[in-house]
Amino acid sequence: MNERYGCNGHSAGARSGQRVRGRRPDGGLILACWRGILLAGGAAAARPLHAILGMPGSTYVRVGGKVLELSNLEKVLYPAAGFTKREVLRYYSRIAPVLLPHLKGRALTLKRFPEGVEGESFFEKRCPHFRPKWLRTIRVREDLAFCEITDVAGLLWIANLACLELHTSLALAPRVEAPTLLVFDLDPGPGAAMRECCEVALKLRERLADAGLESYAKTSGSKGLQLYCPVAAADFGETKAFSRALAEEFEGRWPELVISRYPKRLRAGKVLIDWAQNDESKTTVCVYPLRAMSVPAVTTPLFWSEVETAARAHREEPLRFEAHEVLRRVERNGDLFAGVLGGGHALPEVRRSGEVRSARKRYFR
Hints:
By secondary structure, this protein is α+β, with helices and mostly antiparallel strands. The protein has helices spanning 49-52, 85-103, 152-160, 194-210, 236-253, 304-312, 323-333, and strands at 22-23, 29-30, 38-39, 59-63, 66-70, 76-78, 83-84, 108-112, 122-124, 136-141, 144-148, 163-168, 181-188, 216-219, 225-230, 258-259, 271-274, 284-285, 297-298, 321-322, 356-357, 363-364.
């Protein structure tokens, strides 16, 4: 068992059912271990989660009064890293205090990897019909209900389905037509890399601030970056028009660095600003889930100072963090993405010409 992903360092004297959480004297966040999880079927003593996840075979557990089955815990989901389903479940149980606020109220698309990251995968928008009765759903239309994850039991239930990646709507229920988040997905083409993504991200941050919007950066968990802004928009048409106008503005100002169009033949050496993610029919990978890479990489919030350092680097410095590194970062820094959870700002006007009005009443192209 890989102890990097265990629950070591927490009080062994926690009472059954008590959630261990708080802050260290230096201000770092102590992640919950969700102790007091009971074996179903009359087990007499409470067992900590890391002990149950160390048991072979299938195990029934009780989490917050809800019973679920954890199965095939020995199955390796990341063969190159030897990372098993047990370790996936352990990661999600520990990251839950900062992940759950970003899932609550948002329609969730599951991306499942039944045979691990080297096998076939599939997206699942419709919440599985065999879901437990206590799992909430969000109905976006009469014939389509997505899963909503609000607690650790729900998070472990989908993780047990080998759902590694969690893709959420940019809108909050019940107003599923009104996004509260704006996203710019920065994807490097052949010959470009993280350094170029960071350079574009810094330019975007400055431009968004000029438009009165605060932005937050995270790694995609793969090769690019994503910028999020909390917004108050009437509909996705508003956020899509705004993001497209900014992407086209950037391509016009820095054509050697940025592309806003999607044909692959145009993307060599450039960073695509993917504005089309701002769409009611799409979901975007949430902050803190695992990604299906060779190692258990995580889509990770960044300090802007980290983005600045990577943009200035003379050689490529990948901004990629694995599960154990992210747990340490959160214990030390808390949730760097918490700012997107608050109320957002109205978007500036987009003129018919495609120009975006700035907070200082100027227009840029």
